[in-house]
Design goal:
Blueprint: H1 15-20, E1 31-38, E2 45-46, E3 54-56, H2 58-71, E4 75-81, H3 98-109, E5 114-119, E6 132-134, E7 137-139, H4 141-157, E8 161-164, H5 171-181, E9 190-195, H6 202-208, H7 228-240, E10 244-248, H8 254-263, E11 268-272, H9 274-285, H10 291-305, E12 309-312, H11 315-321
Parallel strand pairs: 1-3, 1-4, 1-12, 4-5, 5-8, 9-10, 10-11, 11-12
Antiparallel strand pairs: 2-3, 6-7
């Protein structure tokens, strides 16, 4: 059968019918808001390349967490900016470091809010790379112990999930072992299993003060041309003890997200990164696009590609728009 008997427009003209048969839905429960907390900051400061996003004081991040919970956002992802940096990022491991302190205070203020902590060293190292460095080379294995200690410090503070984003080989196993030995066998690991060396990260480096002091991160983050390698990365991390997987960035990698969901029976998230946010904000400020419509369309696209959850700088906006019809 074909036209005129088959008329697919019959299913589109009535708004209520469109809603009734909608295949994919974006809800407030899908969202995770990244937050940046900076040690020693006197006043929360807006990130110039990310309008509406802030480096928060330790008091400010707690207040923002309250606002997010009140808006219906179920989870946050914490990034810490320490007062002191060093070549090996040792300050990331401190039990009383900026992230553990923030975790304790947020969990005390809003216990129901899921607190995920980013586990990486780029914000903590003087050279801005995600691991230890010797003679201009990022060292994989010596970095693992520091990452494991960092994750353990977050767990002891009360983090609900730890999320290694460094892309060192073997880091999930190292973290899993440290958590298990430390009495945190119950704590899930969200692995940035598929993290590409992307130009979309530039504004984040302003927010996290983590630009590499030399070279770039293409020696350990994935090449954008690689797709099959993403499956190997995910499979390896799951074998090492990861409980959830993440694809980063989101916008240009929907095909990768779909392949992971079809291959692995575990939750897979998408991270809508800083460059995606900044581009939309810049175009919307000039009246070139409708920000709300663009954001709803792209985030629904992440869900359609298979995202179980979405880490996004628009989490609070999306929750307030209440546009999940």
């Amino acid at each position: 059968m074909g036209y005129p008997d088959v008329r697919l427009r019959r299913l589109r003209e009535n708004a209520s019918l469109r809603g009734l048969i909608r295949e994919h839905r974006l809800t407030g429960r899908d969202l995770v808001q990244p937050l940046f907390v900076k040690e020693g900051l006197r006043r929360s400061a807006e990130v110039p390349s990310m309008p509406g996003q802030f480096q928060y004081t330790e008091n400010g991040v707690v207040e923002e967490a309250r606002r997010l919970a009140d808006a219906g956002v179920p989870a946050v992802l914490l990034f810490g900016l320490p007062r002191r940096k060093d070549p090996r990022g040792v300050s990331a491991t401190e039990r009383s470091g900026v992230v553990p302190r923030a975790v304790r205070r947020i969990k005390k203020a809003r216990p129901e809010l899921l607190v995920i902590t980013d586990v990486c060293l780029c914000e903590y190292t003087t050279h801005g790379h995600c691991g230890h460095v010797r003679a201009g080379r990022v060292l994989n294995d010596p970095t693992l112990a520091t990452l494991a200690k960092t994750a353990l410090s977050h767990a002891r503070a009360g983090a609900d999930v730890v999320a290694p984003s460094d892309m060192m080989d073997g880091r999930v196993r190292a973290i899993r072992s440290a958590l298990d030995r430390g009495g945190f066998a119950h704590l899930p690991i969200l692995s940035y299993a598929v993290k590409y060396a992307s130009a979309f990260y530039a504004p984040f480096r302003d927010a996290a003060e983590s630009a590499p002091g030399f070279g770039d991160r293409s020696g350990y983050q994935m090449d954008p041309s690689s797709a099959d390698q993403a499956l190997r990365e995910a499979e390896t991390d799951l074998a090492e003890g990861a409980d959830l997987l993440l694809v980063k960035p989101a916008l240009a990698y929907g095909d990768i997200l779909r392949r992971l969901r079809e291959r692995f029976a575990c939750p897979v998230g998408a991270y809508s990164v800083s460059g995606e946010y900044a581009m939309v904000k810049a175009a919307a400020a000039r009246g070139w696009i409708d920000e709300k419509k663009i954001v709803l369309e792209t985030h629904l696209g992440f869900k359609r590609a298979g995202a179980s959850f979405i880490i996004t700088y628009w989490a609070k906006d999306l929750a307030r728009w209440k546009a999940f019809r």
